[in-house]
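Whether sequence alone determines local backbone shape is best considered at the level of individual chains. For completeness, the protein is quoted in full, as a sequence line and a line of structure tokens:
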Amino acid sequence: MPRDYDVDREGRGRNMILPCPDPLVYPALTRTDLVRYAGASGDFNPLHHDHEAATRAGLSDVMAQGMLSAGLLASALTKWFGAGSVASYSVRFRSPVWPSDVLSAHCRRLEALLAEDGTRMARAELELVRSSREIVLLGTACVWTDAVTANP
């Protein structure tokens, strides 16, 4: 388990907050994106590609697969910190994502940690946000990093 990066003389951890990387904005989602993701993931639930099935289920339109949203946020981590940098990642879904949504990935807090072997890490608090500023996905991650600042 990583411990706080900055420790006092008694070995007690103190938080070391780092600057967050700039948000990453994705192009507007299309129905084609949803169908492509269905093919890649095997998630062919009609709620993700069939407008009539979605409206019969009480939705206004088809909605994106939840893991597509989670994947977008995870791709921001690898852009910010590099491929292979993610040690752990978890998400909580807050709101459906719809075709034409413009989403942006945000790192809201970045805290330096030190792994037991002395490797530098960071704990990130993340959000995937619709252009209307509505949070659609919350995430947390621990990333391996030799540098204590994120890539721009």
Summary: Residues 66-81 form the longest helix (16 residues).
